Amino acid sequence: MNNGEYKTRQKQAILDFLKNNMDNHVTVNDISEYLEKNNCRVGVTTIYRYIDKLLEQGLVRKYTVDNSTSACFQYVGSTQECHEHFHLKCEACGKLIHLDCSHISELCSHIFKDHGFKTDMRRTVFYGICSACADKRKIAGGSI
Amino acid sequence: MNNGEYKTRQKQAILDFLKNNMDNHVTVNDISEYLEKNNCRVGVTTIYRYIDKLLEQGLVRKYTVDNSTSACFQYVGSTQECHEHFHLKCEACGKLIHLDCSHISELCSHIFKDHGFKTDMRRTVFYGICSACADKRKIAGGSI
DNA sequence: TTGCGTGCAAAGGTTTTGCATGGCA
DNA sequence: TGCCATGCAAAACCTTTGCACGCAA
Predict the structure, then answer these.
(1) Which of A35, A47, A61, A85 could be a cystine partner for A40, CB 3.0 to 4.6 Å?
(2) Low-confidence stretches of chain A (pLDDT beneath 50)
């Protein structure tokens, strides 16, 4: 850690779990259950408090997924890393896709110049269906 | 209403309030308080249940605004109306801006063709700061 | 030793559920 | 009359807070 923060096994365990799930959102409950199974029990209070800090540092994002009542979190690494990224989230499998695409920066400039709106790409997420899930649905014959 | 649903003064009152606030998100509490002041008391249970139906019909959207613990809802009209729209949400004032812009459809086609991701524009919202709020902040000397 | 971190228990909210009653069609 | 809708109370959750104890530095 850095400024006056202590390093503890709890923080380490939470961070490890988050990093191992960068491609998916997790709830506090997910974290708690996983750690419990791995003989590394951590109180939910601690999880909430630590996640708050990570949120402030911009290392984690908070989402609300439609059908879930509790908040979802996702490790996105340092703000700089993802500053220019563009996030796509598959509503079927929950996967978060990081996309580096010049088209998006162009679009943002356009929105700013022509519509006066300053988009915050760190918060904006495109929802939809990823190709893998689209294929599955086709095979299953289901509709969107 | 339609398929087996009854029309009641409660539903009407909730819907009216939502429609009068299309430019802003409201919480269940906001609705409840407003209706109470207007001598039109409706139980929160009813509000939650009715909003659930509206969500299913796609007439209302659910958001979670960062500093609020409760969910925010916003009437967006019929799905068809907003199908081709593109939504910008100001994080400072909560205003929802409906934008009709060809650039966005182009971007979506690009994402689909080159990245295999089928974006659902009905769910996707761009977060940022609207021009009015950006101006206010400049005057106030605050940073983003 | 100092001061941050942790976890329990309790509090504070929000949202959901069960059930009897009310009201539309 | 037959159903759906409503509202109360209670339950079920999620998240935060207070406080005493634990532990990193």
Answers:
(1) A35
(2) 1, 142-144
Q: Are both B61 and B26 inside the same structural domain?
A: yes
Would you state the torsion angle of the CA atoms of residues A92, B98, B133, B119, taken in this order, to the nearest 10 degrees? 20
Residue A71 CA to nucleotide C6 C1', Å? 22
Q: Distance from A97 to chain B by nearest Cα, in Å?
A: 10
Q: How many domains does chain A have?
A: 2
* Strand C contacted by A67 CB (< 7 A): no
CB-nearest partner of B128 from A64, A120, A126 = A120
The domain boundary, picked from B53, B77, B101, lies at B77
Assess whether B52 (CB) lies less than 7 A from strand C: yes
Q: Note whether A88 contacts B111, CB cutoff 8 Å.
A: yes
Residue A72 shares a structural domain with residue A11 = yes
Q: How many CB pairs under 8 A join A and B?
A: 94
Q: Which residues contact A104 (CB under 8 A, 6 or more apart)?
A: A86, A121, B107
What pLDDT, in 10s, does the model give residues B71-101? 889 898 875 555 566 788 887 777 888 887 7
Task: Show Cβ contacts of residue B74 under 8 Å, excluding neighbours closer than 6 positions.
Answer: B18, B21, B22, B24, B25, B26, B60, B61, B63, B96
- Burial-class residue B144 by CB neighbours within 10 Å (0-12, 13-18, 19+): exposed
Protein-to-nucleotide distance from the CA of B108 to the C1' of D17, whole angstroms: 45
Mutate to test the interface with A, among B52, B74, B111, B129 (most CBs of A within 10 A): B111
Residue reference for tokens 């907003």: B82
Per DSSP bridges, beta strands A125-129 and B118-119 are: antiparallel
Report how far residue B54's alpha carbon sits from residue B75's, in angstroms, rounded to the nearest whole number.
9
- Residue B68 pLDDT exceeds 80: no
Q: Which residue of B has its CA nearest to A123?
A: B127
Q: Give the distance from CA A15 to its chain's centroid.
A: 13
